Amino acid sequence: MSFGENIEQLIGSSTNGLHACHHTWERVRIGEIAALVNGYAFKSSGFNDKEGTPIVRIRDVTKGVPGTYYHGPVDDPKMTFIENGQIAIGMDGDFNCRIWGGGQALLNQRVCSLTANEDFYSQKFLALALPGYLKLINDHTSSITVKHLSSLTVRDIPVPLPPLNEQRRIVEKIETLFARLDKGEEALREVQRQLSTYRQSVLKAAVTGQLTADWRAQNAHRQEHGRDLLERILQTRRETWEGRGKYKEPAALDTTDLSELPEGWIWTSLGALISAGPQNGLYLPQSKYGSGTPILRIDDYQVDWLRPMSELRLVAAEPDDCQKYGLHHGDFVVNRVNSVSHLGKTTLLPSEYEGALFESNMMRFSVGNLISKEYLRLYLTSDLGRKKLIQNCKHAVNQASINQGDVEATPVPLPPYLEQEEIVQRVSEESSREIASLKTCQTELARSAALRQSILKDAFAGRLVPQNPDDESASELLARIQSDCPAKSKRSRRTQAA
């Protein structure tokens, strides 16, 4: 849907400081002070990720770099380019914008560029002001279908018009303040990266026995050897088999290239530990989605995160399918088809998800009570475990996959049960400290983002830098703009600042 309201009225009734305008300033429509260039409808058959001319698509606006190349002739005069320093605007979806810095590139359809006439208006000031107005338009555009932004709407936005020298002073002040915030935010993101690296180092130490070396030395006399534990697991598995087809003993694991484990640990296969499954999920056409039973999809979980059950999509499934594909507390769910970076993503389901279904690009399995599910989760979500899980994946165009046999053949280091519990406890303690640090980083990043908004609000309210009576006034500047472009000025009414 497209925007259909009166932008002047919306701005006039807005209490958001991002839409403020100092009483000594004027307002001017973007079309009077900037040139807008629309993208071209390139044929998608020419898109690829290696050869040709870089092209900016809607999804590239927020990233700031082109993610696609166009392989084909680019000599049609209607084909347009964007250069560094111009403002790129995505005209579908969330109406994002940014000053482009990704190099010369073609402009695809539904992306436009803006270039201010800097004799009248600072390009950087326009880039600072524009996001607040695009969000206002976005918030008042119907989302029944994909939101669309028109060039006419962009040209009609009445942005603040301070004196030109004041625009430049505002930009300079904001850049100085934002540079300080940038440094602080980068430091916080570096802490986040280090915490992520630290987490993986903890998991590696956990599933290789390093984390519990001291505990193991003190408790060796209490430990059941992993070999004996595995035999008990296999015996229980034989007696209570609910896996695929008729019971078969798990295939022997080739340990030739596997690392040496601590005393009391053994390598086994994931298949030897599975008591039910693995089972691929349910496929239903999109026409079945909208009501019915909650269904778990691959974007509904990440490591240590699950979308709340109440927010899962619903699907109209038959009762037999609900019984066959219904999830249970303690099930493991594995992403079996995706890009390599996300393939093998695994989660352990809490009781909240009992009865939800799972889609066909996943598989699920469960294990018995003689192995700690939390320990197995830690292993499968570690870099080491996921690498073992997907080591035999099959590659296709833009995606890879693993099958049930790959899952069953995954090598798993099996410690004695008491040591599994100690590993889980120690990782939990480390995770608590990590989570606290991450929350601190997130709080500080949110505070920094709020401070940026506060700085912008002060800027547009005329409070960030002092006014200079020697500057050319905003009204004189507006007169020059209208004199320079009378046709546009006649079409657009002057809007006095409030």
Automatic annotation (TrEMBL):
- Write down the EC number: 3.1.21.-
Which SUPFAM superfamilies does the record cross-reference, listed alphabetically? DNA methylase specificity domain
Region forming the signal peptide: none
Q: Which CDD domains is this protein grouped with?
A: RMtype1_S_EcoBI-TRD1-CR1_like, RMtype1_S_EcoKI_StySPI-TRD2-CR2_like
Region named Disordered: 462-498
Matching entries from Gene3D superfamilies are given as: DNA methylase specificity domains (3.90.220.20)
**Top-level class of the enzyme under EC nomenclature:** hydrolase
Which residue intervals define the domain Type I restriction modification DNA specificity in the entry?
24-185, 313-431
InterPro entries associated with the record: Restrct_endonuc_typeI_TRD (IPR000055), Restrct_endonuc_typeI_TRD_sf (IPR044946), Type-I_RE_S_subunit (IPR051212)
Q: Which residues form a coiled coil?
A: 174-201
Q: Identify the Pfam families for this entry.
A: Methylase_S (PF01420)
Alphabetized, the UniProt keywords read:
Coiled coil, DNA-binding, Endonuclease, Hydrolase, Nuclease, Restriction system
Q: Where is the composition biased (Basic residues)?
A: 488-498
State one molecular function term (GO): endonuclease activity
Source species, domain of life:
Bacteria
Per the record, the similarity remark reads: Belongs to the type-I restriction system S methylase family.
Protein name as it appears in the record: Restriction endonuclease subunit S
Q: Supply the source organism for this entry.
A: Fodinicurvata halophila
